Amino acid sequence: MFARLVGTGSYLPGDPVSNNDLAARGIDTNDDWIVTRTGITSRHLAEPGVTSSELGLVAAQRALEMAGVAASELDLIIVATSTPDFIFPSTACLIQGRLGNKGAAAFDIQAVCSGFTYALGIADKFIRSGSHKKALIIGAEVFSRILDWNDRGTCVLFGDGAGAVVLEASDKPGILATAMHADGSQSGILNVPGQICGGQVVGDPFLRMDGQAVFKFAVRVLADIAEEVCQISGIRTSDVDWLIPHQANVRIIEATGKKLGIDREKVIVTVNRHGNTSAASVPLALDEAVRDGRIQRGQKVLLEGVGGGFTWGAALLEF
Ligand code: UT7
User: Fold this and answer.
1) What superfamily would CATH give domain 176-318?
2) Which of 52, 212, 266, 290 is the least buried, fewest Cβ under 10 Å from its Cβ?
């Protein structure tokens, strides 16, 4: 029994916001710095009041449409997000309600930028166990809400968006291997340290990051976990048709591909146009490459994420 990917969808809010647009809004930055250090040229930012569930709903509807699956058929809905609409109910329950599904298990998971790969791993285990048959997995974020727009070292890096996939139980290959890891001793290098107390956010409500520490950690674990899922599946990393790493920085993506011996042409890159959309980055890139025809049935696709926690996760699948 496999969890087979039968549909993908994504959604980006509004028009692209360029690096020059950010500088024009008063951020002390410039296009040359951002492009040279990160490869990012633009990102999408949700209008005030637009929530992760709204972005995730559209991505989900597009994935269901491609899959030819009705929302009522779903028995599992998982949303990966660090920017949920509410403390509770979960973003997954909100999307379930809007889709008109009743009865599916629905919950959010919080593994920051690794969230989508964690959610895929969880759904794969549900489906392989035989307990669930049709799963909707969504990564949805409005990271712009947790950015300090006076901190030029972080605010230029991120964007908003959502991506989704539909998985079905099948005897044809689908997800071949998944892995997920965390190292809580590294929680200090990327975090949003505010706490909720007495109905208020107490402390710092914005994302804080030690960029260079994150950079080094990310390249190491992205290479390690790619090798891990290939080893579980009994294939070489050079047999991977498409690598879709977390879209945080072109330099991290290139360094990871190089370490794994995967050609540049086999690496899907969207960070240049999306920025880092955290849990949405991998499904957004996957949907783009499926819809433009680069990813073909039968090909091996390696998805991987890394983010706050620190967490990292991967899934190797046959499309
Ligand atoms: O999901 C994981 C999310 N995080 C990441 O992937 C981040 C990984 N890290 C990185 O991508 C890089 O560390 C950054 C792109 C964040 C930063 O690059 P860096 O080469 O590590 O730069 P830096 O932080 O050491 O800053 C170098 C200089 C500083 O100026 P001084 O002190 O040398 O005069 C910064 O103040 O660049 C300055 N700077 C900027 N200048 C223009 C920092 N941000 C900006 C900016 N525009 N936006």
Assistant:
1) Thiolase/Chalcone synthase (3.40.47.10)
2) 212
Atom of ligand 1 nearest to the CA of 153: 44
pLDDT profile of the chain (319 residues), mean per 10: 97 98 97 98 97 98 98 98 98 98 98 98 98 98 98 98 98 97 98 95 97 96 97 96 98 95 96 98 98 98 98 98
Q: What is the CATH number of domain 2-172?
A: 3.40.47.10
- Return the H-helix or E-strand segment holding 17: strand 16-18
Strands 134-142 and 76-80: parallel
Probe target for ligand 1 pocket from 206, 215, 216, with the most ligand atoms within 8 Å of CB: 215
Q: What is the pLDDT of residues 243-289, one digit of tens each?
A: 999 999 999 999 999 999 999 999 999 999 999 999 999 999 999 99
If residue 131 lies in a helix (H) or strand (E), which one and from where to where? none
Structure tokens at 97: 């309600």
What residues does each domain of the chain span? 2-172, 176-318
- The label of the residue with tokens 């290479």 reads 223
